[in-house]
Write the structure tokens for this entry.
Amino acid sequence: MAARILSLWGRPLAAAGNALRKFWWWLRQMSGDAAYENYLCRAGHSGGQEAPCPAHRPAVSILSAEQFYLERLKRRYSGVSRCC
Amino acid sequence: MKRYAKALVWVFVSLGGAGALATIALQRGEPLNGTWFIVAAGCTYLVAYRFYSAFLAARVLALDNQRATPAERLDDGKDFVPTNKWVVMGHHFAAIAGPGPLVGPTLAAQFGYLPGTLWIIVGAVLGGCVQDFVILFCSIRRDGKSLGQIAREEVSKRAGWIALLAVLAIMIILLAVVALVVVNALKESPWGTFTLALSIPIAMLVGVYMRYWRPGRVLEASAIGLALLVFAVVAGQWAAESPSWSEAFTLTGTGLAIAIILYGFAASALPVWLLLAPRDYLSAFIKVGAVWALAGGILWVRPRIEMPPLTQFTDGTGPVFAGTIFPFCFITIACGAISGFHSLISSGTTPKMITREGHARLVGYGSMLMESFVGVMAMVAACALTPGVYFAINSPAGIVGHTAEAAAATISSWGYPLEAATMTGLAQQVGEQTLLNRTGGAPSLAVGMAHIFSSTLGGEGLLAVWYHFAIMFEALFILTVLDAGTRVGRFMVQELLGHVWEPLGRRGWYPSIIGCSALIVTAWGYFLYQGVVDPLGGINSLWPLFGIANQLLAAVALVVATTVLIKMGRTRWVWVTLVPLAWLVTVTMTASYQKIFHPEPRLGFLAQARVLSQQLAAGNVPTARLVATEQLIFNNRLDAAVTALFAGLILILLVEALREWLSILSGQKEPALHEAPYVTTRLAEAD
């Protein structure tokens, strides 16, 4: 029975799971939740999360999560960031 | 075969859109439901995106995916970062979507549903989206430079200064008018005021969380903040039911204005991580969530449109704001169709994140289509109210009177039946003391949204909660605009004063922060105060001023876009920006002229000042109103001067641009484009 349900619903479930994963990725990128991970990745550090990104250059000094967050806010709110 | 199937799909989409538009335009006597608006807008947007934006991308701008963008060439991992196009689109949409497309269409509904809806759709497709797209393209080709810098380089130095002045002017008027919308939504409303007041410590708590406890964890902090905000909406009812709390949070218009002015000053001077950033995150999530919920709600409930397609107020005698359908329908809708302010975002952070030139189409053109869709939904929510209720909420006391009986009698005499009991009953249902004379559009939109939401979830029992949720949603992101705008205005003032005395230009120097914050807050606070004490409700004067300022900035953007197209040798296609520019100039100049010189006192600033002066001279003003009347006379003259300034700026800009265009087209001057040099991209095709 379970095998039959799985064979019937397996594909749609996998597609839904995939769509949810993509949405979650987009949400984290969009909101800035993943910004520090991206920064570490680009700087060639894993930040203890996952394997270092091979494609990017190592930075001279790495900002802490708090320093990075504050710097990001400073840049973001230095110009027109919200519209009417 | 596949090609034919695709063509067939587009034929169906086009026919669907045309059919829905025809139904909206031609339906008479039969009830119409909101789904027609969604179908008409959705199909038109799909066709416009598929064909018109593709034409702009390929033929007019000739976007080149092999050309490296500034995000790739100047990649520093901070400002310039190649980013996924859907992420950039999300960022861009969150930045451009403000209160304008919600408030403008709601106010324009006084002309009926038809003119506003058509302009929101057509204006966006042919004007607003083109402006956003072309300016984004111009900025990408110039290393992400701002609109002012591009205007200075491509048109003239004077055009650059006009852009700077226009930005500062629009900022001041914008902040005043959005603050007035909040004041009118919250005055005498302990529930709404309590909820919004509670949002300040909630935002600060979220700020502390993201700074100290879990730095940068935006999603989890926002989830906590959103849960607390929902609690604040529910707790607002308890506060409204408690005599002592209710008294403390029942504020007059003037009291609320002072509170908002003080808040704006504090938000501008406080560290950004403490209040501005967390409030921005919370409001962005609520904004996007509420907009999608409204779209779903309209499709689910299919609300009946109660407003007629055209009202008698197209003749200019409307109670919500004075002025004929042309030009004031277009001035009032502003951001829902075309917004000059968007060009600042399109030449701000967005161009620095675009990975490929081709992505500018989705981000620039596509995001503005979504913004326009928000405007259409606001129009549906406003027109789902019966006209009597709509006019009772949006008309000032000076026109319909202070009591439900007086308002019902006046509005019924216009041909829109309304009983006093309907208004008192509705106010009770939504948990307010009164809904009369709440000008500004936010309360009527909140009533419309609450009806749609409560029909979807919770029924009549939750109407009051949904109403205050909608008010909180509108007020929250209006205050975010206020925070962010005051801060940017402060930076601009600091930059200007820095030329006079260098220390004043230092962004981190506290005396300069305090002084410049006070200056910018005083500027918009003055206009806010004049709106609050205006017997015609304030919106009648301030919203058109805001619309004119906004369209002025759009004219700056379209002049820049046209100049760039001419310099690129695309004279054949220059109509894509020239036609919206010509329309905008016609609309803005007509509106400016009428707002200054029209003999009808409700419309013309000078006429109103003259009438008040005559009353004063004839001794017809009670002693207690003498000072207030003198103040009103001054305010009207000031508004006339500000409008004249905007109109003058447009004229100077046009002369500057025409001179530049003619000298290029006649061959007297070599077209010198200031684009960054061509570098071939190194990114793989899939990036």
Summary: Chain B touches chain A through 57 residues (CB under 8 Å). The beta strands of chain B are 32-33, 304-305.
